[in-house]
Structures
1.
Amino acid sequence: MQILEFEKPIVALEEKLHQLLAESEQSDIDLSDQIEEMRGRLTETKEKIYANLTPWQRVQIARHTQRPFMLDYINHCFDDFLELHGDRHIGDDNAMPGGMARLNGEACVVIGHQKGRDTKENLLRNFGSAHPEGYRKSLRLMRMAEKFNMPIVAFIDTPGAFPGIGAEERNIAEAIAFNLREMMRLKTPIVAVVLGEGGSGGALGIGVADKVLMMENAYYSVISPEGCAAILWKHRKHAPEAAEAMKIAAPDLAKLGLIDGVIDEPNGGAHQNPEAAAMSLKAAVSSAIDELNKLSTEDLLNQRYDKFRKFGEWREEK
């Protein structure tokens, strides 16, 4: 189990609690008062730490190795998932799975980034960094959704699009830019959810949506905190300061109006209780789709256009 630096006080109290429980079972000494006191301290410490997370701490939770990934949420929230492969140009991309599924009985298309939990799976999934084929495949599936009047659900969880030579040769920038334009035109509801990492154009390439939601401990940014720190402070050790300055955490982005909602996670992060996190996500996505289904196609497209045109607007106060 991965233990984050700021969680060490919690782990220390949990170990003491286990020791007291073990000692109580192995002896005739009544330790119930000490056990209850320790449980109280543990609960209080958890609430204090998790209620006051910094943006950098949320980034660490977003990258937690046990955090639920796209396919985990599909297993918990959707029925009859059928994965479809290939972009019909070059090939398939395992970093960007997608296909058809049912959400509360309604047919939809689901796409998104998928990471791995071990070296073998990460190599298969390319650490969640999609190639041009992934973005072209996702657009192919989204156009299929438009054709058959199915809503689209996009799960974002990537440090960024793959920056390798092959991806550049096959025009990764054009693939992402083309998606941005075409998603703005799709005549079907689109809901995007940032599950963990929402890095740069790799995230935005499937993020042009009518409703953009974020898990409570996810982040969404044009650059990683480490990348920003390397540019501004010339050293990645300043990543915590960069995360704070960039306002990349879900609560900050909601206040700025750059996302449409924050999905609550279990105390300590989605990895602490994946089933509960999945139920929160399912409820939020279902509600968003129900709301969007009530709109006419014209209103849907106009609202989507207006939503993104407002980004970056500002005014001077005299």
Note: The CA atoms of residues 128 and 158 lie 5 Å apart.
2.
Amino acid sequence: MKDERFIQRCFDLASLGAGSVAPNPLVGAVLVHNGKIIGEGWHQRWGEAHAEVNCIHTVLPENKALLPYATLYCNLEPCSHFGKTPPCADLIIAQKIPRVVVSNVDPNVLVAGRGLEKLKNAGIAVTQGLLEEEGRWLNRTFFTWITEQRPQVVLKWAQSADGFLGKKEAQTAISNAPALRLVHRWRAECDAILVGAHTALIDNPRLDVRHYFGKKPLRIAFDTQENIPASHHLLDDSTETWIFGSPLMPVKDRPNRAYSYKRTKFIQTVGKILITNILEALKKDNRASLFVEGGANVLGQFLETGFWDEIRVVENSRRLGSGIIAPNIPTSAVLKEQWILGDDTVRIFARSTP
């Protein structure tokens, strides 16, 4: 139970890196001597020091002599290769830490057990697989990125108690203020947000994080019919944006737009926009997660083609009586989390594994 408590602390620390480390994993590390934490850290930013390094650096000078008698807890296997930083396994060995406890083995082929093997060969006692399922859930984006070789796809929608997304041809606010803040937190933790042409036109969304804090994710929209007005937020060029399905031609009120936008990229498509093409473009751009916010047609495409890993539904207690029908939750979805936010119920589903 003591080991599990410290691994849980690693999870808590690792979560602090959400939105800042992708496509790297979320990792936290804790150093313990005689049941007392003497150091802790997490991977704070992509390309910078890993959790183990930050953890060791927090040990006070008067506690440095305790390292050869301490246990290092880490939710993911320490790396064993040179990347943007040196191998963490080498640092652990150099510090003469005698015991290491981890939750998950790193699925990356550059690691994949080699870090733990290096530690064992150096005489370090290794315990692995502690709270393994919880660790995989924490790092589900990373595991999808490595094992599926594509971004993790999260579908999100808000619906009324009687199952409607909103009124037809009208912008309809459903969820409450706390839920709105939660959604903006989710946005800040993802790499890209996608909406369809109808949602972009009717709702005129900003797709930003103004009700939370953190980085602005890449905005993506469909616009095969050139319907999004230049006055809409998605074409304000305020942040990086991809518009799929738009020919690079002087049309309507946007003459020579390919040359007048700096952060907005217009991606030509022929025929139907394929989800596989979007995911491939995101992968090439090192974007590890895609947050799909609708509308109904776009959500339906992802559900029908099976390109989804997680579904997040915010259901408000009020009833609309009529409108756009919300998608059905697939039978392959498993409820992972549920909680109440005022008059909203939040449910998170994951795809079940065979």
Note: The two ends are 30 Å apart (CA to CA).
3.
Amino acid sequence: MRLLIIEDNPDIVANLYEFFEPKGYVLDSAVNGYAGLGLASQHQYDAVVLDVMLPGLNGVELCQKLRNELNDATPVLMLTARDTLADKVAGFDAGADDYLVKPFSLVELDVRLKALVRRAKGTHAAAAVLRVGELSFDTSTYTATRAGRPLALTKTGYVLLRCLMREAPRLVPRETLEQEVWGEDRPDSDALRTHLHALRQALDKPFPFAMLRTVPGIGYKLVSHDDGV
């Protein structure tokens, strides 16, 4: 499981790393809201552990931006020393999925995060049809269309498209795409580039603007409209 920890208390961050890393979790961390938002926009996480009282951009504001501006449905568990009903309501209204009051049990945090991730995966499985602008992909039948026209893709093309659509409009690092296709057995050659070229030919060539965009040296993303780039 990959976690993003957004917390400005170094002791809490150290405790989280000490507890979760031996369990095989991969952790990234940020000490303020803007840095946390930047990481969330650049990488794919299974869950976010979010402090409410953060410098620069507080946890409630950050969660709102995740949901409303980035269209990011990653489960968010908020940590706070404030335990009033009004505080909890504000967190849930901002889009948080769970709430844990400091001081907290690391074991309880682990259990809650696992439950959030299980629930999120179940929700994603139920949503069989992915849509980004005029692009639609029924993952139950492996049928993809753009502006109503069928797209003929390879098996790998469908896997890449599913990953890109699931994360759109966020940037997907090339490492994430390689993991999605090949797992830990990644090829030595630049096979990903070849498969993405084939996907781009089917997805963009017959249409007036390119939906699949390359960010050189970093990764790829899907856009839903023509931004002139």
Note: The radius of gyration is 19 Å.
